[in-house]
C-alpha cells in the first residue's frame, strides 16, 4: 500500500493498492478521501492510477501516465447541496486532473530515466 496526500482541486488522501505490478505496466487502485473546499466537506472517490512503459528503440521509451476517478455513493447528493451539477463537477475535475497529470508525468518519466541510468533495474534478457 502507498498513501499519497496532495491537492488536486481539493485535498485528496489516496490509499493505493497494487492491482498490476509488471515491468512495463502498473495499476494502482484507491478509495480516496476528499476534503474541502470548506473544513466540513468530505467525500470519497474511486481512483485508478495506471502507467505504461513502451520501448520505442534502444535509447527511447514512451511513458504514459493515466488517472481515472469515479464518484462514489452520495457524491451527487453532496454536489446537489452545493448547487453543482454532475456535469459541472466532471468538467472541472477533468480540467484539474489533466493539469495535474501534465505537471507530474514528465517528473515521473525523469525519475524513471534517472534510476535506469543509475542501473537500478537489470536489462531484460
Q: What is the helical fraction, as a range of percent?
A: 25-40%
Strand content: over 45%
- Low-pLDDT ranges: none
- Arithmetic mean pLDDT: 84
Domains, number: 1
What is the gyration radius calculated from CA atoms? 17 Å
Structural class by helix and strand composition: alpha+beta
Oligomeric composition of the shown chains: single chain
Helix and strand run? EEEEEHH
Shape: elongated
Number of helices: 2
Strand order of the largest sheet: 1-2-3-4-5
Biggest beta sheet summary = 5 strands, antiparallel
Q: Strand tally, please?
A: 5
User: CA-to-CA gap between the ends?
Assistant: 30 Å
Task: Please tell me about this protein's structure.
This protein is an alpha+beta fold. It has one domain. It contains two helices and five strands. The chain has a five-stranded antiparallel beta sheet. The longest helix has 32 residues. The radius of gyration is 17 Å and the shape is elongated. The model has no long low-confidence stretch (mean pLDDT 84).
Amino acid at each position: 500500500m502507498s498513501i499519497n496526500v496532495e491537492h488536486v482541486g481539493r485535498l485528496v488522501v489516496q490509499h493505493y493498492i497494487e492491482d498490476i505490478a509488471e515491468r512495463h505496466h502498473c495499476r494502482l487502485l484507491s478509495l480516496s478521501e476528499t476534503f474541502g473546499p470548506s473544513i466540513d466537506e468530505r467525500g470519497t472517490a474511486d481512483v485508478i492510477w495506471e502507467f505504461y512503459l513502451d520501448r520505442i528503440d534502444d535509447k527511447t521509451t514512451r511513458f504514459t501516465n493515466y488517472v481515472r476517478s469515479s464518484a462514489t455513493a452520495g457524491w451527487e447528493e453532496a454536489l446537489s447541496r452545493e448547487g453543482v451539477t454532475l456535469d459541472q463537477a466532471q468538467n472541472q475535475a477533468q480540467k484539474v486532473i489533466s493539469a495535474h497529470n501534465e505537471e507530474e508525468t514528465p517528473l515521473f518519466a525523469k525519475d524513471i530515466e534517472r534510476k535506469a541510468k543509475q542501473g537500478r533495474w537489470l536489462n531484460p534478457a
